[in-house]
């Protein structure tokens, strides 16, 4: 068993992704599933129902009439968006359950992941004119491996985190040195277990991999672009750590610099909306 697999096994002894998230993924992949199937699953989680109705009735959607039924909310948000909300809800719970530490900030990591999800979705939709639900999912989950490392190998994780600084070894190199695996490998295995589409699993695995063959519009390219943009807004895993891009992705941003400037200007408001929704 690999070090990554051992850490995941250790982590899962005390933490499980809620059954509802896995079940929603199964329903999305089942072409015979119905709206009633989704409503039945969602209704089993009162907290998620409350979050769902809060979101759909927020000013973001600007609806004239209040939505007070799960079926109506699902119909308005869509199945994949619903799944992403459930994943976000579950992930926030994982970060909250991790407690607090003076060196490593769970709140900072949570907002970083949320920002990556939001920014990835915006890039997919605004820059490439494609549905951004999958991009959001890979963004929100891309650093889940860090929580697994923190809970399964806290001492070497903190040693790695303390050594992480701009201009020094990469986070991947430090993780391999101190822990014997890295959060990308862990996240990849967990995403596969959660039945995420393989291109999204690969984006999580490769989001720190600088390769010239990664196209900007691919799931991996979008996630790397997102990480770069939010780092420019100082929304990083650790203060002062800068994200670098391949020459191909850099050229892409330069070619569409005005569009990315507008996106970056709008991003803080979107992040604040998530902060308010989840009480961060």
What does this structure look like?
This protein is mainly α and 280 residues long. The protein has a domain at 3-16 and 100-278: Hypothetical protein af1432 (Orthogonal Bundle). It contains 16 helices and no strands. The protein has helices spanning 3-12, 19-28, 35-42, 46-56, 70-77, 79-97, 106-127, 133-141, 144-152, 154-163, 171-178, 183-193, 198-206, 219-232, 247-255, 257-278. The longest helix has 22 residues, at 106-127. It is globular.
Itemize the secondary structure elements and their pairings:
Elements: H1 3-12, H2 19-28, H3 35-42, H4 46-56, H5 70-77, H6 79-97, H7 106-127, H8 133-141, H9 144-152, H10 154-163, H11 171-178, H12 183-193, H13 198-206, H14 219-232, H15 247-255, H16 257-278
How many beta-strand segments?
0
**Principal-axes shape call:** globular
Radius of gyration: 18 Å
SSE-based structural type: mainly alpha
Q: Average pLDDT across residues?
A: 86
> Can you give the helix content as a percent range?
55-70%
Q: How would you describe the oligomerization state of the chains in this entry?
A: single chain
Largest sheet: none
Give the termini distance in whole angstroms: 37 Å
CATH fold field value of the domain at 3-16 and 100-278: Hypothetical protein af1432
- The number of helical segments is 16
Output the helix-strand order.
HHHHHHHHHHHHHHHH
CATH superfamily descriptor of the domain at 3-16 and 100-278: Hypothetical protein af1432
User: What is the CATH top level name of the domain at 3-16 and 100-278?
Assistant: Mainly Alpha
Report the sheet-strand fraction. under 5%
Uncertain residue segments: none
Q: Specify the CATH architecture of the domain at 3-16 and 100-278.
A: Orthogonal Bundle
């Amino acid at each position: 068993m690999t070090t990554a697999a051992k850490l995941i096994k250790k982590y899962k002894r005390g933490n499980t992704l809620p059954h509802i998230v896995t079940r929603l993924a199964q329903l999305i992949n089942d072409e015979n599933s119905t709206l009633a199937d989704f409503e039945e699953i969602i209704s089993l989680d009162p907290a998620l129902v409350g979050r769902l109705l809060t979101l759909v009735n927020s000013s973001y959607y600007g609806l004239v009439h209040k939505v007070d039924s799960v079926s109506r909310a699902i119909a308005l948000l869509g199945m994949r968006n619903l799944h992403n909300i459930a994943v976000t809800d579950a992930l926030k719970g994982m970060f909250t359950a991790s407690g607090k530490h003076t060196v490593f900030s769970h709140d900072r990591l949570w907002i970083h992941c949320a920002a990556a999800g939001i920014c990835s979705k915006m890039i997919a939709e605004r820059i490439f004119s494609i549905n951004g639900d999958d991009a959001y999912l890979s963004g929100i989950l891309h650093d889940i491996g860090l929580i697994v490392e923190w809970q399964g190998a806290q001492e070497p994780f903190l040693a790695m985190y303390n050594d992480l600084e701009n201009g020094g070894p990469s986070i991947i190199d430090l993780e391999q040195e101190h822990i014997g695996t890295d959060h990308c490998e862990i996240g990849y295995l967990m995403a596969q277990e959660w039945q995420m589409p393989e291109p999204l699993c690969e984006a999580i695995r490769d989001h720190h991999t600088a390769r010239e063959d990664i196209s900007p519009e691919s799931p991996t390219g979008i996630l790397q672009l997102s990480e770069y943009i939010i780092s420019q807004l100082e929304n990083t895993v650790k203060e002062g750590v800068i994200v670098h891009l391949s020459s191909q992705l850099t050229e892409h941003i330069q070619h569409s610099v005005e569009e990315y400037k507008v996106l970056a200007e709008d991003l803080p408001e979107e992040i604040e909306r998530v902060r308010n929704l989840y009480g961060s």
